[in-house]
Amino acid sequence: MTSQHTGTPDQPAPGGHRETGNTKNEQAVRAAHSPMVAAERARKFGSWYYAEHALKVMNGYRWTLLAYSVGNPVMYLFAMGVGLATLVDSNSAESAFGGVSYLAFIAPALLSSATIMTAATEFTYPVMDGFKWRRVYYGPHASPLAVHQIVNGYIIAISLRLFLMSAIYFAIVAAFGASPSAWGSVAIIVAVVCGLSFGLPLMAYSASVTEDKGQFALVMRFIVTPLFLFSGTFFPLETLPIFLRWIGWISPLWHGTELGRVLTYGYDEPLWLSAIHILYLVALALLGWVLARRMYERRLGK
User: Fold this and answer.
1) Would you say residue 256 has pLDDT above 70?
2) Residue 9 binned pLDDT confidence (cut-offs 50, 70, 90)
3) Radius of gyration of the chain (CA)
4) How many separate helices (H) and strands (E) can be counted in the chain?
5) Residue 11: pLDDT above 60?
6) How far is CA 162 from the centre of its chain?
7) Residues in CB range of 85: below 8 A, 6 or more apart
8) Where do the domains of the chain lie?
9) Average pLDDT, integer, range 244-256
10) Would you say the C-alpha torsion 230, 236, 239, 243 has a positive or negative sign?
11) Which is deepest, 53, 85, 217, 295, by most CB within 10 Å?
12) Beta strand residue intervals within the chain, DSSP E
């Protein structure tokens, strides 16, 4: 008598085929990771995929980012808000800064200026790097990701960085008692929008630059620095000569700073002016976003 091998549930008999639960699972896994499914997911969630990529790149030098993004404004806080504030408060009337200490007066300005300076860094050289030096945009663009998803993903990543930086800085400010209002934490959102209102138009400009001839250094010296000095950061804008006040009026930093002061210590300001601050910042951010998308499409192709 010859023995007949009938096989086991996990081992089909010779010449036969028996589909097992494991085989079905493997087929389901292969189907879930098929090129068509992956492409569909990229088309649907591409912005978040690119944001994840950008955040992982930042994670490689996270301690440098933390030292620069938080260390610089904190040093300014100690130097100007704690050191200089002692001299200013002792030689100024109580009404000079809206009835609050000099530390409370400049803290919202330093918060907004930190996001603008970070945005000025992230939306200049890294943008040009994506087109020219390492050309990191072309790989994702060759995938199912659309151009607008690359733009949106990078903006999402930088926005998250600005939010984390602002939250840490605000916690330090609050620990020093420079945000007595219950609405003070909303200044974190204002600071992020302030950074984007400056950074997104700059992103559109950076995407248009094909050769580095010192344009970004000029932006830092002749746009960022004047905004920092003449936007009511260290003193009320009204103390400037009338022919210099226009710098503050068009500066996102001034609008973000004024809103921050309203939120952190109840700065006395008309409601219509606060509304103008919000509309101005949002309009600049939206305009920069639209222009950046158009410029990226021009460089990469739709």
Assistant:
1) yes
2) very low
3) 27
4) 15, 2
5) no
6) 4
7) 101, 102, 103, 106
8) 46-300
9) 94
10) positive
11) 85
12) 7-8, 11-12
